[in-house]
Amino acid sequence: MQAIQITDKSEQVAVLTPQANPWGVSPWGKTPPVAPCSLEDVMSEELAKELQSEEETGYVVGEPQVLLTDVSLTEDAMATDRESSDLLLAQMLQHEYDQEHDNMLKKEEAKFNGDSKVSISFSNYRTVHPALDGDDSSSDDEDWLDDGDKDDPRPKFSRAGYSGKGKNITTKHDPNICERRNAARMENFPPEFDTGDTGDSHGDKIRLPNHVYNKLKAHSMQEGKRSQRVHEKKEHSTAEHAVDPKTRLIMYKLINAQILDEVNGIISTGKESVVFHANGGRMPERTMPAECAIKVFKTTLNEFKNREKYIRGDFRYFKDEFKKQNPRRIIKIWAEKEMDNLKRMRRFGIRCPEAILLRKHVLVLSFIGQDHVPAPKLKEAHLSPDQFNDAYVQCVEAMKTLHKHCGLVHADLSEYNMLWHQGQVWFIDVSQSVDYTHSHAFEFLLRDCTNVYQFFSRQGVPGVKNQYELFNEITGLNLQGEGAEFLAQIQEYEKHEVYLTNDQARKDYAFEYFFDKTTKEKERKREEAKNKSSDSEENGQ
Predict the structure, then answer these.
(1) Exactly one of 102, 314, 340, 412 is catalytic; which is it?
(2) How many whole angstroms separate alpha carbon 128 and alpha carbon 135?
(3) For the whole model, what pTM was predicted?
(4) Phi and psi at residue 409, to the nearest 5°
(5) Helix, strand, coil distribution of the chain in percent, nearest 5
(6) Burial tier of 432 (Cβ tally within 10 Å: 0-12, 13-18, 19+)
(7) What residues contact 272, with CB distance under 8 A and at least 6 apart?
(8) Which of 45, 239, 356, 399 has the least C-beta neighbours within 10 A?
(9) Contact (CB, 8 A) for 203 and 212
(10) What is the per-residue pLDDT across 179-220, written as a single tens digit (0 to 9) for each?
(11) CB neighbour list of residue 285: distance below 8 Å, 6 or more residues apart
């Protein structure tokens, strides 16, 4: 670089460079001569102030007042300053953009991996070096270390995750530190998860090992999912009292249509339904009773999962495809069965509730009782020996009528499904009752006979027939044996061709019988073909 010379009349020269020097003089230039002065002048305050002002204003000692800054800041120096400032600003903007790009990559990585045990990292696509990244991932976990106790100093970890040197080195995986950290993390559990008293805000009073914290965290997540499922189930299916929004809407419509005046309390709760008491209104085509019973079938299959075998084998509902994954469709068929069975039973004089109206899974029945008090079940009724004897006779006669005239089998007859009202036995809960052409109808009948025999024999009723004698009396058969032998005869009889073709419009045939019959037919035709071939060979000879 060439030097710039500044000259005046006294021929004194000052050598300067174009470099912007805060002192106004180039370090490589010649030092200007200094005028000698005495110690008294040096100690003078006026001289000190003069020298200070010269340094601040850029004057040269002994020269006319020429500003060195006017010649030192050339155009090249100013351009260099502007370029350096623009470069720094561009670097700062680029760094912020790279940080935003990396944050987006982190979010995409978390979204892509989800809860998978095998995760994929996008770290190779990041633009900011981890050492320059201002977001320390462990800062949130280490916040609890900031306000340490003086008696229990907490270490400050480096980015590598350790503190101290040599034998005093401590990592962030230290058991004591992890236990305190876990206690502090419990504050992040959902509010509905009761964690109890975990100490102060930094978890000093309680410590949790990693395996305990992991179990609590897993349990918290499971409880959150379970509560969400329970909430959805209450919204979409009937709960304990079987009144979900759809059921409530059906009841409101019945009241608005004046079919019912009001709905009162719950009469009984069973495994498949809930029964409410209601005051009857009016209908144009018939007279409503003063008291009604509303039977609401539960749409959950948790308590009564074996509905399928009662529906598939009944030819009356075989046309409707059984869909186990659609509870409301199953309950609709179940309610239809209840209504059809009750109408058939009343047609032949069997005492049972009268089916008035059906709306989806809500069935309106006549009320068996008086003044809002339901009739007691036979299990709960306090009867005399003579009344129990009459109840047994009525029960057997009703079972015979149900089988011979109605063509039905109750399939769940017991002291819990029989009511005692006005000195008579009433049958209820016939939704599972099947037609006598059902493939398992006789097996269900034997089970009903067993329940009836066991109950009345416990009550001391004289002359009670056992289940096998009662079964033969109802069906008119003469099967012998007991236990498994008797049941095997029933199953064999159900396969019998006479039973299958005895003027019964049966849709569900016994597979084993016809499979054996087809196999024997094929063997017979095969033997006939062999005989014909042997006869033709003999005639040819």
Answers:
(1) 412
(2) 11
(3) 0.51
(4) -125, 130
(5) 45, 10, 45
(6) buried
(7) 297, 298, 303, 304, 334, 429, 431
(8) 45
(9) no
(10) 888 887 877 777 667 776 665 544 456 778 888 888 888 888
(11) none
Q: How many CA atoms lie within 13 A of 151 on its CB side?
A: 1
Where do the H-state alpha helices sit in 130-270?
A: 175-185, 210-236, 245-256
Residues 437, 29: Cα–Cα separation, whole Å? 123
Cβ atoms within 10 Å of 388's Cβ, excluding its own: 20
What count of residues does the chain have?
541
At residue 131, φ and ψ (nearest 5 deg) are -70, -25
pLDDT digit string (tens) for 287-343? 899 999 999 988 765 545 566 667 665 656 544 455 555 666 778 888 888 999 999
pLDDT digits (tens, 9 = 90+) for 382-436: 999 999 999 999 999 999 999 999 989 999 999 999 999 999 999 999 988 988 8
**Could you report the per-residue pLDDT of 331-381, keeping only the tens digit for each?**
888 888 899 999 999 999 999 999 999 998 899 999 999 989 999 999 999
Nearest partner of 66 among 16, 6, 20, 121, judged by Cα: 6
Which secondary structure element, helix H or strand E, spans residue 498, and what is its range? helix 497-500
Residue 525 tokens read as: 């035709």
Is there a catalytic annotation at residue 412? yes
Query: Cβ contacts of residue 116 below 8 Å, gap of 6+?
Result: none
- Distance, C-alpha 86 to centroid of its chain: 56
Give the pair of three-digit tokens for residue 310.
């009662």
Distance separating alpha carbons of residues 307 and 434, to the nearest angstrom: 11
Hey, how many other C-beta atoms are within 10 angstroms of the C-beta on 50? 13
Whole-angstrom distance, CA of residue 146 vs CA of residue 529: 97
Q: Are 362 and 294 in contact (CB under 8 A)?
A: yes
Strands 373-374 and 369-370: antiparallel
